[in-house]
Amino acid sequence: MTNESSQDKILVVKDLHKTYRDGEVRSEVLKGIDFSVAHGEFVAIQGSSGAGKSTLLNLLGALDKPDSGKIVIDGLELTSEVRPDQIDIFRRDKIGFIFQNHYLMQEFTVIENTMLPLRVQGVDKKIARERAAQILTRIGLAHRLEHYPSQISGGESQRVAVARAVVKNPPLILADEPTGNLDSDNRARFIEVLNTLQAEDRLTVIVVTHENELAMAASRRLLMKDGKIDIPV
Ligand SMILES: Nc1ncnc2c1ncn2[C@@H]1O[C@H](COP(=O)(O)OP(=O)(O)OP(=O)(O)O)[C@@H](O)[C@H]1O
Ligand SMILES: [Mg+2]
């Protein structure tokens, strides 16, 4: 790590570039992204459709690779030299993802879905169950532990997705339009849950959103425009 990537920064991004190539067609999406996020911050990234928000988030979560530039997360630089198995471990231990669709496993109950990230880390089943129950209780889903995803509402499912993302206490939570499919009541509920967990557990959260209501909950808002991070909004 370089000097500037100081210890209190969970994330440092420098001069990130990404161009999609499809045959003859090139679309230059990220044209030099620079920003950093401190431990415990709640950052919202806004920008119009096609601005490259999901592209950026996918790079931060190591779901895709940049053409050039630097990403350092919790002291690990994501370079092309990092082996695929290290990337898997990085994702498993360092990142909690929340997407627009909850992607809960339909054949597992709410509590089993929430336990899953811990089980993948090798945490004992009983301990994983206890931790999952704890977090689900905190977000008002104690009465839904043994339900299957098909038996709960969309709003509840999205809150389970939050529980699943935070249960392993990852250094960084990445959320891409997490309230995109929710009505206004469920959106408010989601924001409240995310806010509470973020504040109480000092989670570091980066959320990409079109929605002002969610962005306003963040402690800092950044605007993506013309392939760059623009002035704070
Ligand atoms: N896999 C891909 N191959 C080619 N082009 C892509 C690919 N993924 C995204 N793009 C293009 O890159 C640009 C940015 O897409 P991206 O999904 O990052 O935007 P976004 O800001 O998340 O938009 P939205 O708000 O609609 O979700 C778009 O023009 C899109 O068409
Ligand atoms: Mg997107």
How would you describe this protein?
The protein is α/β, with parallel strands linked by helices and 233 residues long. It contains seven helices and ten strands. The strands form two sheets. It has a six-stranded mixed beta sheet, sandwiched between helices. It has a four-stranded antiparallel beta sheet with strand order 2-1-4-5, with helices on one face. Strand 9 (220-225) and strand 10 form a beta hairpin. The protein is globular. 39% of the residues are buried. Residues 1-5 have low confidence and may be disordered. Magnesium ion binds at residues 53-54, 176. Magnesium ion (MG) binds at residues 53-54, 176.
Summarize the structure.
With 233 residues, the chain is an alpha/beta fold.
Structural class: alpha/beta
Q: How many individual helices? A: 7
Name the CATH class: Alpha Beta
**What's the average pLDDT?**
93
Annotation keywords:
globular, binds magnesium ion, alpha/beta, Rossmann fold, 27% strand, four-stranded antiparallel beta sheet, 233 residues, disordered N terminus, binds adenosine-5'-triphosphate
Give the topology:
Layout: E1 9-22, E2 25-38, E3 42-46, H1 53-60, E4 68-73, E5 76-77, H2 84-94, E6 95-98, H3 110-120, H4 125-138, H5 154-166, E7 172-176, H6 184-201, E8 205-208, H7 212-217, E9 220-225, E10 228-230
Parallel strand pairs: 3-8, 3-9, 6-7, 7-8
Antiparallel strand pairs: 1-2, 1-4, 4-5, 9-10
Helix pairs in contact: 3-4, 3-5, 5-6
The structure holds adenosine-5'-triphosphate (ATP) and magnesium ion (MG).
